[in-house]
């Protein structure tokens, strides 16, 4: 008696976040931004965002729920050259 095993399904490609556009009107008002928004504003990848946070170029997230988010005010100050 021989045993046959089912073939393993192909591995899924890793999930990649897509940059999400942010309008100036949204950025000027109260609210929060996610990693996708920062990817759009700074023109870089998700991993580059986290590297910039680690290196101190970008401010740390304002909160987690469980995904990180930044307040519009924090990013607005950073983009205008204010303190992070």
SSE blueprint and pairings:
Blueprint: H1 24-28, E1 32-33, H2 35-42, H3 46-54, E2 63-64, E3 68-71, H4 72-79
Antiparallel strand pairs: 1-3, 2-3
How would you describe the overall organization of this protein?
This protein is α+β, with helices and mostly antiparallel strands. The chain has a domain at 24-79: Orthogonal Bundle (Arc Repressor Mutant, subunit A). The chain is 36% helix and 10% strand. It has four helices and three strands. It has helices spanning 24-28, 35-42, 46-54, 72-79, and strands at 32-33, 63-64, 68-71. The chain has a three-stranded antiparallel β-sheet. A hairpin with a 3-residue loop joins strand 2 (63-64) and strand 3 (68-71). The longest helix has 9 residues, at 46-54. The protein is elongated and about 75 Å long. The model has no long low-confidence stretch (mean pLDDT 89).
Short description:
With 84 residues, the protein is α+β, with helices and mostly antiparallel strands. The chain is built from four helices and three strands, in the order H-E-H-H-E-E-H. The radius of gyration is 19 Å and the shape is elongated.
Output the strand order for the largest sheet: 1-3-2
Q: Major sheet: size, sense and barrel closure?
A: 3 strands, antiparallel
Strand content: 5-15%
For the terminal residues, how far apart are their CA atoms? 69 Å
- SSE arrangement, N to C: HEHHEEH
SS elements, strand count: 3
CATH class of the domain at 24-79: Mainly Alpha
Which percent bin holds the helix content? Answer: 25-40%
Q: Structural class from helices and strands? A: alpha+beta
Low-confidence stretches: none
Helical run tally: 4
């Amino acid at each position: 008696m021989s045993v046959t095993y089912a073939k393993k399904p192909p591995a899924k490609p890793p999930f990649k976040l897509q940059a999400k556009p942010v309008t100036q009107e949204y950025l000027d008002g109260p609210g929060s931004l996610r990693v996708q928004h920062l990817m759009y504003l700074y023109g870089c990848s998700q991993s580059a965002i986290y590297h910039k946070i680690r290196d101190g170029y970008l401010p740390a997230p304002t909160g987690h729920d469980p995904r990180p988010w930044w307040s519009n005010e924090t990013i607005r100050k950073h983009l205008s050259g204010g303190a992070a």
